Amino acid sequence: MDYIHSAHSVYMLTYHVVFVVKYRRKVITDAIGDDMKRYAASLLETRNCRLISAETDKDHMHLLIATSPQTAPSSIITILKSRLSYMVKTRYANRVKRYLWGNAPFWSNSYFIATTGTTSIERVKQYIDSQRTNEHQIKRK
Length: 141
What we know:
β4 and β5 (about 60-65) form a beta hairpin. This protein is α+β, with helices and mostly antiparallel strands. It is globular, with a radius of gyration of 16 Å. The chain is about 40% helix and about 25% strand.
């Protein structure tokens, strides 16, 4: 990744983010994961951010995000978690209802976020890309 030059600054801000499904329920299928990755990329683009890499497994999602200094990480987290949850619960309502009953949120309240400044972007990207379990990878083929 290259540094981004703006009128008054030069920056490269990247975050590794992880969301976990409520109760670690294994709700995410390949189709749901692919939809979530596409939707996350479009959400980030509308906010002057970029999705560098993303991967899902049955109960969590990893994202590698590039942002600008004007974008608060907490606002990106809020937008991603709420919009992705809404999308999954509306498009895949029948599947979600089998795992999350009543009015349970899709994501757990917590999340993981770390800057990637101490690790090369390529190393973090490789880690994220390797997150599918063998069982999940076999089903995808």
